[in-house]
Each structure stands twice: as C-alpha cells, then as structure tokens.
Amino acid sequence: MNVSRPLYLGPRLRRLRRELGLTQQVMADDLGVSPSYVALLERNQRPLTAELLLRLAKTYRLEVSDLAGEDAEDYAQRLTAILRDPLFADIDLPALEVADLATSSPGVTEALLRLHGAYAREQLALAALRENGGDDEASDPVGEVRRYIAANRNFFPTLDARAEELAAEIAESGGAQDWLKAKGVRLRFVPPHVLVDAVRRFDRHNQQVLIADNLPGPSRKFQVAQHIAYTSMREEISALLRREQFASKTAEVLTRRALAGYAAAALRMPYDRFARAARERAYDVDALSGLFGASFEQVAHRLTTLHRPGAEGVPFFFIRVDPAGNVSKRMDGAGFPFAAHGGGCPLWNLHSAFRLPGQILTQWLDLPDGQRFFTIARAVSTGGTRWGEPLVQHAVALACAAEHAPALVYAQGIEPAKVEATPIGVTCRLCPRAQCTARAAPPIGREIMVDDQRRAPAPYVFADD
C-alpha cells in the first residue's frame, strides 16, 4: 500500500470522528490543525496527507490500513452493485458517471447507499412476512434479540458469576471510580455538549470514561457499570455470542448490547445479595431501588432474571410501553402470552399508568384460557434533565402468575382465588370475548353480523353469539 500520495477520505474521517464522539474542534486540537481544515478534509476539499494519516493513526491508536482504503473506489463498487437492481433497469447509467459521482459527491453517494439499504431490508421483511404468514420478526434484528433473550429465559449464569466477582473487587477498591483508576482509566462526569449527543463515551486516547453529568444518579451508575461490562466482561459476553448463529451483524451487535446491559445490572445488583433482598422485602420495587441505588425500571428488569437453581425468585414478566402503546421492551419469565403483533388490551391498567405518574397500580388479570396473573404498573420517565431536552415517558409493568402474588408486598393477605379479576385478552384479534365494549377489532375467524335495527353495546356482534 502506498501512503506517500494524498488521499481523499472525507466520509471515512467523518465517520471515525463521530464513532469517537468528537467535535471537529476536539479532533483538530488532537491533530494539531485548525477546525476549518478538519471540515475541509471531511468534505473532500483537501487531501489527507501521509503525514496527517500517520498522526491520525497514532493519536487514536488505529491501524493505517484501516484508514487508508480507497473510499471513492469502494463507493463506486457499492454504487454499481445497487444500480444493478431491476428497479433501475430502464435507466442508462454509464460506469464513468457512477465513478464520477462516487469521487466528487461522496455524501450523496452515502445517502443513496443508505436509502437503497433501507429499501432492500424492507423488501426482505415483506417477503418474510408473506412467507411466514405474518411473522415479520424473522427478518427483524430487534425481534431476533428478543427471541435470543427469551430462549435463555433472560438468565445468563456466567455473566452473573463474573459480575459477582467484579462487584466484590470494586467494593474492596472503594468504588467504581477507584477501581477504574487502579486500571489506569479516569472517570469523569462532563456537560452533555462535550459528549456530542451521547451519554457515555470511552476516550481510548486519554484512557478516560466520560459520562454526562446531567444524568440521574442511578443512570450514571448504570453507565459506569456498562463500561466495566464491555471492557472487563468481554470474554464472557463473546463466549455467549459465539454459541449463537445470528441472521445479521446488526442482530449480533444488538445482542452484545443487551448482554452488556444484563451484565451491568448484575454488577449493580449482584445475584445472591439482590435475590435475598428481594425475598426479605417481599419484592418491594421502591425499597429495592433505595437499597441498590437503582431506578424503578432497573430493579423491575433485574427481577425477571432470578432463575438460578436453588435461589430462584418469583418468575416475572416485564413489559415497557410508550403512550402510543408501542412495546419497546419485554422479558418473559412468567409465561405471560403477550402478542407479538397488534396492540395490547386497553383493560389492562398498564395503559392507565400515564395518568397517575409515580403511583404503582395493581391489578388481577383473567385471560380467556383461564390463566390468572397479578400485575403492578407504574409510569417512568427519562430525559428532561436540561432546558430543551424532551421528557420521554413509558409505563412499565411486572406480572406474575396469581399463585405467586402472596409473596409480593402488593398482594400480601389476599387470597388469589377470592379476587375478582379483570377479564382481558392478549390482543383484540385473538380475544374471543364477544361482549367486550373496549374491543378495537374483531377476532380472527369470527363472522360479523350487521343489524340495522339493533345496536348492541359492543362494537361488533357475531353470527354465532
């Protein structure tokens, strides 16, 4: 490879800067050039000389070969490949024009590549939806992560064991900051603008972990724990990933992030101590939050992981929804039959939690198949810690089978068999409760009977009722 000639690597330099979480000013200071020169480099209006390339590699501890590739040639090849799509068959696209676009307008080329990538993924998702009779999670990396977590019952004993060892080391060192310092890593809490739209960044060059100083205490601690998980539990996480075949790199990366989150929670709430405290405090989420310095949601999530043989906790189901009813997270350890598609049941008070922020709502649920569950729900929020930052609201719920409810502080002294439960369905399309006045859609397979002379309370009347 010849690095003596100037190279135009604008898009690659810009991606590198963003991956490192740097502003143009910070990168300019690191490289000993002006911010305007960095801007010109990123727009391909100035070449990246061999001297600057070597300085870049040394400053950020990178391999020159990773930086000195031919972006224009790579872009031209990728652009040529997508332009073979039958969608463009009737357009004359000379190779010279394609090469010229890749060289002179790398930003436009990148936009076209991303757009076509999104189009191709949607085509695959649509094909999977049709082939599988409606299961579009087969081509969805988020769905793949959910299935992986569910297959393991959200329990990863190797991560719990290693986290307990690390938690003991950290406690002996006097805390995470002192433990990291002993490893040669500095922990700093800095204003959000320094992090360039991030809440945590590891500055490899200066060996320091930067955390946004406007985060609430539990979130700060969790971000520190997540850095430790990524760096000190890498082998355990990688070993778990190697056992699985992922459909895409994106799914693997998202799974790595999920496992790092699990490990961070295990560091903050070590298994034995947390499981014992949960039993002693009758699964009082607020009490456990205070004891471990964690948020309500962090504790609720951790409660779904207590499956160690001989030290099991109550099996819980966890779900998080936004005000529109979109599910952003769910963990099943209680056999709750949540639907993969469609909205949830409006009779579940999970959706009412937004109207009563800070309050824990309890409810007994009766499903059509006879299963009964006890749930607690509460609204939680993130963001809004500085002017102009939006407040993001969610409602989270924990559910357990009715027979386990007496172990919870929220249902102590209540006999599940004597409670009048709320009849709910999994989702309207699968719910057979014909008389439900809250129904939004008819169930699959039921014939609707229309009568102009009579209007029933329920929105639909069925022929066989």
TrEMBL record:
Extract the Pfam families matched here: HTH_3 (PF01381), Peptidase_M78 (PF06114), ScfRs (PF09856)
Q: Which CDD domains match?
A: HTH_XRE
Cross-referenced InterPro entries, in alphabetical order? Cro/C1-type_HTH (IPR001387), HTH_RamB (IPR026281), IrrE_HExxH (IPR010359), Lambda_DNA-bd_dom_sf (IPR010982), ScfR_C (IPR018653), TransReg_Diox_bact_type (IPR050807)
Report domain HTH cro/C1-type positions.
Answer: 13-67
Task: Identify the PROSITE patterns for this entry.
Answer: HTH_CROC1
Q: Which UniProt keywords apply?
A: DNA-binding, Transcription, Transcription regulation
Q: What top-level branch of life does the organism fall under? A: Bacteria
Please state which protein family the record places this protein in: Belongs to the short-chain fatty acyl-CoA assimilation regulator (ScfR) family.
- The name this protein carries in UniProt is Short-chain fatty acyl-CoA regulator family protein
